Amino acid sequence: MSYEPPIPPTDLPTDLVNTLNEFGPERLQHVARYVEELAEYKEREVRLEKKSNGNEIEDRPDDLPDDVPSKATITIKEINDNRYYYWQWREGDKIKSKYKGPVNPDE
């Protein structure tokens, strides 16, 4: 870890960089978690959109519940510092989720 402040990416708006620089460490950790989850959500939407535009027929996974469509993908959500697997798929404009289980089976 450097003793110098990090250099922000050049494509970030100056007002955003200035706002982030005003935040304390705890608030920045919350922002970092949110930004990571937001990026995963948007990447998942792109994947689901590409998948729904394609005509590929995929095999249904053995552990896929009957009420989850075969186009569903697995994602990881962090809730209260615990990580869980969820099935996710698109229905119209909405993203649907169904709990699959903990990432660490000992939890």
Model description:
The chain has about 110 residues and is of the alpha+beta class. It is built from two helices and three strands, in the order H-H-E-E-E. Strand 2 and strand 3 form a beta hairpin. The longest helix is centred in the middle third of the chain and has 29 residues, at about 25-55. About 5% of the residues are buried.
Number of domains: 1
DSSP strand tally: 3
Q: Determine the strand fraction and express it as a percent band.
A: 15-25%
Query: Which runs of at least 5 residues are low in confidence (pLDDT < 50)?
Result: none
Write down the overall mean pLDDT.
83
Structural class by SSE content: alpha+beta
Helix fraction bin:
25-40%
Which overall shape is indicated by the principal axes computed on the Cα atoms?
elongated
Biggest sheet: strand arrangement = 1-2-3
Rg (C-alpha, Å): 18 Å
Gap from first CA to last CA: 32 Å
Number of helices: 2
InterPro entries: DUF6788
Domain DUF6788: 57-106
Pfam families: DUF6788
Protein name: DUF6788 domain-containing protein
Briefly summarize what is shown:
The protein has two helices and three strands.
Write the layout of secondary structure elements.
Layout (H helix, E strand, L loop, with lengths): L13 H9 L2 H29 L19 E7 L2 E10 L2 E9 L5
Antiparallel strand pairs: 1-2, 2-3
InterPro entries: DUF6788 (IPR046738)
Organism: Natrarchaeobius chitinivorans
Protein name: DUF6788 domain-containing protein
List descriptors.
alpha+beta; 2 helices; 107 residues; 24% strand; three-stranded antiparallel β-sheet
